[in-house]
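hey can u check if this looks right to u? its 298 residues, i copy pasted from the old doc so theres a chance i mangled smth
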Amino acid sequence: MIERTVHLAHPVDIVGTWHGLRRGRHDPTCRVAADGIWRATRTPGGPSTLRLVPDGDLVHATAWGDGAEAILDQVPDLIGATDDSSGFEPDHPLMARIWHEMSDHRVPRSGAVVEALVANVLEQRVTTFEARRAQSQIVRSWGEPAPGPAELLLPVDPSVLAGTAYYDLHVCGVERERAETVRRVARSASRLDALASEPLEDAESALLRVTGVGRWTVARTALVALGDADAVPVGDAHLPADVTWALTGEAVDDDEAMLDALALFPGHRGRVVRLIEAAGIRAPRRGPRYSPRDIRPD
């Protein structure tokens, strides 16, 4: 067990910042409890479990496992303490209010590219419920117990995931196309995780060259693993309507209309998307509220 304390230059809501990093309340790799915010992950130094306890302008961090030193080094990035929001001073009335109320929702940079990429591939073309169920079943089937006292599970070792047969993933609710993309990502885990140290443009271009990975998946991955505050997930079934509703008062289900509305916030478009989602702003739904297919792109 190793401990450190991180001093915050600005307030951070860790749970809110981890939107997209933590896969729902039942994510077996994360836990939010009275004794802290817990996360199990794999680092270049090995598996680790991290506990974070906010304390005013401090965050007390404790880590277990072979990767303890590595994950503690990463804590400021992981919780958004190093997120640079300079230049983000929205004149838009709604966004100015949301930023005033929720400026502690930051953009994280986990560095865990493959972990985020696999989770986002599982969200392609299905509902959030289906994706999180598949994620949980996969981790519970092949994940290992995480070090430390929290009784969490580690994300599945990429080498195990790469060798998992399609039909075993199908049992978890993952059809062949997504299953093959997951296995393809896992086979290239070392190369893809190394992208965390590359310039954003180069890293995102490399991710787009992975077969089965499109702009939506890359943007969602970049928003949590690479700290790209300007990444915009295009191709989402509902996001354009939600964003245009929030920014213009008219729900337009069109990516170009969304990008036009977001042009007011250069360098921070992804930040605005995250804030709109965190604030719970949704455009009126005119179609079926639940459709099992074509919910996520790529």
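Residues 288-295 have pLDDT under 50 and may be disordered.
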